[in-house]
Design a protein that fits this description.
With about 550 residues, the protein is of the alpha+beta class. Helix content is about 30%, strand content about 20%.
């Protein structure tokens, strides 16, 4: 109501009461007409994106926004499957090394045609050492990509070539069974060369950002909402039903539930575990819980002289963590206990995955073993205090508080440190100091490599900065192995080494938890938990 009164700020003082009432009524009718003419989706997101530059992002919340603004060669459909996007078809050479993509006719949000050069420019930019793209490693399967990103080869040696405006050729280092799935990722999105080169790091601002996806950026008010509107130049615009998306950040998941119940939000991207009983009773039809390809884990770092540098101390901490309690009590049964870094059921892996011997041991026996390990490592009872760092979320807070209590049982003291979400992961990527932090990794594709590669010495997502030449050698061996069975064995050896040294302590496997209004069509539960707005509608 306030909005309508403020539309007449200067006239209000000179109008009669009757005139004001008539004007207000008219404004309400006009507003109702505008609302009915547009299909608007109010969509909760975990947090604001720290950037809208695809080469400076890494989180799920950023991916949610980017896959609505941009479209890669392939895209996720409503079922989370990789399907043709900007590439309407492609050819693969007999040796599996060369992919030739044929682009469909589509336009950027400023009316320019989308061309193969837009993809080539983006792929060269993300590998340019000056871009310092933390997630460039996901595309290292492209020929010479790792050497180019490391500054060891010039940019023009990257295995990406423009054949003509509608044809793009990509050459790989080795046959990669998951390469097409990789192209759905935010790192493989195209960029509008002219605007990026002209505007530099200002190209992501509202009014500047040129996108090729189903939607274009209208406005962005941090901590309030990011607004998108339908892109009329998009090749399938006629079948995009949503006219406007309001992405609203909710680090406090409870706030999203309150606004969801008030009808102000259509989708909440997460549900706090402590309210799960209430949600299951009151919002039965709207609650969505589904398997999700992800691991919730604890990177362990510590100062150079910290006892945390000793693998025996890290194993003691792992032994003391009651994962069943975390999964069933803290997360209200919406997570699964996990002792392995690669989630169960993943494709292209050894049967049954990798296991650890203490997963089935009694917790009291594990605590005794943990104390023995600490004694071996020279850590006297009560002498070690660790900081447990986590990003803002009720679920994360409750998890870390429970772990602090568990560590008391083996005479380790712990204090909590909550950090605001938009800076949290940047801090760890940039080698910020910490003892133990909370992290989650969601598979970018259905293959063990997407999880294990982040612990290699050359990746910024190796938050603990653990370095193992043996581990890196096993990962490189897997990358060079064409036989899928032998490749799986090499990856399993790498995970076995990781779980022995424990620079990261896996504690839970994810499920996706969301609230979705019954008014929403086109939202399908899927293992990748990908839900592009392009496929949705609002009743």
């Amino acid at each position: 109501m306030t909005v309508f009164w403020n539309r007449f700020p200067n006239r209000e003082r000179n109008m009669s009461t009757r005139d004001l009432l008539v004007a207000s009524a008219l404004a309400l009718v006009m507003g109702a007409g505008a609302v009915s003419a547009q299909m608007v989706l109010n969509r909760g997101n975990d947090t604001d994106p720290s950037s809208l530059d695809p080469h400076q992002t890494s989180t799920v919340s950023e991916s949610n926004v980017l896959i609505d603004l941009f479209e890669g060669l392939l895209v996720f459909n409503a079922a989370g499957e990789a399907v043709p996007g900007m590439a309407e078809r492609w050819d693969i050479s007999d040796d599996g090394l060369t992919y030739t993509f044929h682009l469909r006719d589509s336009k950027w949000s400023n009316g320019d045609p989308v061309t193969a050069d837009d993809f080539s420019f983006a792929y060269h930019r993300i590998m340019d050492p000056q871009t310092a793209a933390g997630y460039a490693s996901i595309l290292f399967s492209i020929k010479n990509a790792e050497q180019v990103a490391g500054g060891k080869m010039p940019l023009d040696q990257l295995g990406v070539k423009v054949i003509d405006p509608k044809t793009l050729e990509i050459t790989l280092e080795a046959p990669t069974p998951y390469f097409l799935e990789l192209l759905t990722h935010q790192t493989a999105l195209p960029l509008h060369r002219k605007s990026v080169e002209a505007l530099g790091n200002q190209f992501t601002r509202p009014g500047n950002l040129v996108s090729n996806g189903a939607f274009r950026l209208a406005s962005f008010t941090p901590n309030a909402q990011l607004v998108m509107e339908r892109n009329p130049g998009y090749y399938d615009a006629a079948n995009v039903k949503i006219d406007r998306i309001n992405y609203i950040p909710f680090e406090d998941r409870s706030s999203c539930i309150r606004r969801f119940e008030a009808g102000e939000v259509h989708i909440c991207s997460d549900v706090p575990a402590e309210q799960m009983d209430y949600v299951q009773k009151k919002l039965t039809q709207e609650l969505r819980i589904a398997p999700y390809l992800g691991v919730y884990y604890l990177p362990v770092k510590g100062a150079p002289d910290s006892p945390l540098k000793d693998a025996r101390v890290r194993k003691a901490i792992s032994l003391a963590i009651d994962r069943d309690f975390l999964a069933n009590q803290v997360w209200a049964g919406t997570m699964l206990p996990s002792y392995t870094f690669v989630p169960p059921g993943i494709a292209n892996y050894v049967e049954g995955g990798v296991t650890v011997d203490y997963a089935t041991e009694d917790l009291f026996d594990r605590e005794d073993e943990a104390k023995e390990l600490l004694e071996e490592a020279g850590v006297a009872p009560g002498s070690l205090t660790v900081e447990l760092r986590y990003n803002t979320s009720e679920n994360n807070k409750n998890t870390m508080a429970a772990i602090a209590d568990m560590l008391k049982n083996i005479d380790i003291n712990a204090r909590l440190n909550e950090v605001e979400g938009t800076t949290y992961f940047n801090y760890m990527r940039e080698d910020g100091p910490f003892d133990i932090s909370r992290a989650g990794w969601i598979g970018d594709y259905n293959d063990p490599q997407t999880f294990l590669m982040i612990n290699m010495g050359n990746t910024p997502f190796n938050y603990s900065r653990w370095k193992s030449p043996e581990y890196d050698a096993l990962m490189n061996k897997a990358a060079d192995t064409l036989d899928l069975g032998e490749r799986a064995k090499a990856l399993a050896e790498a995970e076995t080494l990781l779980l022995d040294q424990l620079p990261v302590i896996p504690i839970l496997s994810y499920s996706s938890r969301a609230l979705v209004s019954t008014k929403i069509g086109g939202y399908e539960d899927n293992l990748m938990d990908k839900h592009p707005t392009r496929w949705m509608s609002v009743d």
